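Q: I'm writing up a methods section and want to include an example of the input and output format. Could you take the sequence below and give the corresponding predicted structure tokens, formatted cleanly so I can copy it straight into the document?
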Amino acid sequence: MEALLMVLIEALLSGVLEYMDSMLLNLVPMAFYAEQFLDQMLGRDVISELFNILFSFGVSLIILKFIKKGFDTYILWIDGDADTDPILYLTYLVKALVVAISFPTLYGWMATIVQNLTDKLLNIISQGVVVDFTSIITGIVSKGLLTGIVGVIFFGCLLYLYVKFLQTGLEILILRLGIPVACVGLVDSDQGVFKTYMQKFFQAMITVMLQIALLKLGLALVLNGHLIWALAVIVMALRTPKFLQEFIILSGGQGGGMMKAYHATRLVQMVKGVMK
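A: Here is the clean output for your methods example:
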């Protein structure tokens, strides 16, 4: 029975081997510039056309929001303070348009910085070691049934991490496409949804960087024979988005109101406990 299970485990790991080599190629560009791979797979330039449409839509919304806000404030007197200098609202409009127009360039700079930082982290972790999946699988199979089962779980988590990684890359792409629409919030003094939107954006980019670093660390641990530690690292990589949410709190909008209501409720409960 054990021999049969080992044959099955070896077959599973050998099947996974076909995907491992291609998985580690172009991880960072795939996350930060997913449109290049999507256009290549679709055979036409789809994402650029979507960006142009959403950019025109976002700029139109910014201008309409500025006109409506000025009309409600200075003519109908139902929104804001009519004594506010109109130059201030004009500054909000200019800021929204500048951010919407210049964001592709700003994103390119930011992606380059994050990519360079990720490359430095990977160089420290790997130290030039080339990952040979054939030798890894051979070593796992040769150490018995328990190690083989842990190895199957490890590579299963690795495949799932790769899918989640692609999902995060798509999230970054969608956030990039929606930036012109999110800039409508900059017309307001409190920045509207833009602040929360950018927090989500930075969280996704940090998630990519940490997941790639943890993936490489897990593979380095497997090469050194520490399969349990490698499994723990991969599980931690899968929990990275939830881990970041524990200290990157998205504020603003309905979520901010909900958080304030929650903290107020907790404060009332604490006061009641003290009084009792």
